[in-house]
Amino acid sequence: MTADKAPVIKIEHISKAFGGIQALKDVNFEVYPGEVHALLGENGAGKSTLIKIMTGVEQPDSGQLFFEGQPIHFANTRAAQTHGITAIYQEPSLFPDLDIAENIMVGRQPMRRGGVDWKKMYQEAGTLLKRLGLSLDPRTKARELSVAQQQLVEIARALSINARVLIMDEPTSSLTQGEVEELFAIVRQLRASGTAIVFISHRLEELFEIADRVTTLRDGSYVDTRSMTAVTTDELIRMMVGRSLDQLFPKQDVKAGEVVLEVENLSVEGAFSNVSFKLRRGEILGMAGLIGAGRTNVARAIFGIEPATSGIIKLNGQVVTINSPEKAMHLKIGYVPEDRKEHGLVLAMSIANNITLPVIAKFARFSWLNKKREAQAARDGSVQLEVKMAGVGQKVGQLSGGNQQKVVLAKWLGTKPRLLILDEPTRGIDVGTKAAVHRLMSELAAQGMAILMISSELPEVLGMSDRILVMRAGQLTGEFSRAEATPEKLMAAAAIA
Fold it and tell me: Pick from 430, 466, 301: which is nearest to 39 by CA?
């Protein structure tokens, strides 16, 4: 940055520990007005703790914060917001039953004669929405908005407090490509107006498109700060994990065996129609397409969550009717869902309870649960997946996103499936954990498991699939072998009518 510009916020030698676990160790970080500064690191690297210190949620054990060159202490989030520092998280935090204007102005509504000045509030909210180029009615309830629209409303809320520093934590993880482009247009607008933006994303390709500089953390320690124009993807990966990840997609060559799954003209009314394909033993079948193409609906139909309204499902050559997840599990089908927090885990329960949940009857005798056997099975699954934890009694909600994903995988591997459906298996997890999940997928296929992998990340689809199906608007529009698949061919099949 230019020498005549001072950082709006600066962190020097910050350290923070939680119960003997060192979350941050002597970390330095600074953000200038009018820059997008990427904050990068694996799950557990300390990014979340650093954000909490910047926003007043947590207090550092040592070190110093500076705001516009002056030492400062944020006792709470209100103190940070007063100075224009606010954060937008991966999952929007709007009140669903309040409208857009009420969410933007929550806690700061304009008052008139002892009550809320509703006219002024809707006018101010409308002005903020127009400033962002949004044609939303400020009286629309938050629950009626898409995830992308909710995030834009949160940006409008940040503008309403004249945000000097806007922290964006994985803002694109649930957005379509078009929605990402809209978000980036607004980020550039904010940068041009002088707002300092801290941008956190596991999608490295996004950082090259939107960020000016990048700071990397590893194991709670500061690694380096670089200009995005002076760093490569391989260098970023090395900075994050301390080693080269040439084998991010460690796909073993496996000779496919007999057909395990065959679907013929499978349909779910209003979601997809006439989908037909085969999946063989030892094969990883990738399913690509834009969000909303119907891929997840196909997976949910095979697993019995949204039973097919027509068509045929065959397992090992036998026609089966799958009208519930229980029936799918009985047929040795496992399903790792796209949203691990909403559909894959019970966050308030322990690691052991989550891993053994689908097979809990195995550990019961005369209605009594053998907790020792349950804990041992959970430990075995956790060791296989290399879950970083205090113990299997730890609450799943306390784990990082990558370790939560490993618990979901351990849970379904514990059912000994012959067919495993993985819907966005590495969404929102760091590059090191992605490599571990990919390695596991390859090993499972080599052992004879049939895997259906749905992914929105083209490198993952191309790197891990033996064959690739492409869907668009509820229809299969392409099928490619590993050798013939290219990003251009997949995108053409996914996006061109």
Answer: 430
Residue 314: which domain range? Answer: 259-495
Q: Which two tokens stand for residue 452?
A: 């259906």
Q: Are residues 390 and 427 in the same domain?
A: yes
**How many degrees, rounded to 5, is the angle at CA 186 between CA 8 and CA 204?**
80
- Single residue among 207, 241, 275 that ends a domain in this structure: 241
**Strands across the sheet with 85-88, in order?**
70-72, 62-67, 9-18, 21-31, 221-227, 213-218, 36-40, 196-200, 165-169, 85-88
Same domain, yes or no: 235 and 263: no
Q: Are strands 364-365 and 333-336 parallel, antiparallel or unpaired?
A: unpaired
Give the residue carrying structure tokens 């229980």: 326
Q: Please give the pLDDT value at position 318.
A: 96
Q: Are residues 236 and 290 in the same domain?
A: no
Q: What is the pLDDT of residue 3?
A: 47
**Which of 184, 207, 241 marks a domain boundary?**
241
- Return d(Cα 291, Cα 81) in angstroms, integer: 34
Q: Distance between CA 256 and CA 446 in Å, rounded?
A: 9
Number of domains in the chain: 2
**Position 195, amino acid:** T
Is residue 282 located within the same domain as residue 393? yes
Kind of pairing between the strands at 165-169 and 196-200: parallel
Cα 463 from Cα 373, distance rounded (Å): 38
Cα–Cα distance, 338 to 52 (Å, whole number): 27
* CA atoms of 134 and 491, how far apart (whole Å): 28
CATH of the domain at 39: 3.40.50.300
In this predicted structure, what is the pLDDT of residue 244? Answer: 53
- Shared domain check, 229 and 288: no
Spans in the chain with pLDDT lower than 70: 1-4, 43, 91, 174, 242-247, 341-342, 366, 496-497
Q: Is the pTM of this model over 0.85?
A: no
Query: What per-residue confidence (pLDDT) applies to 418?
Result: 93
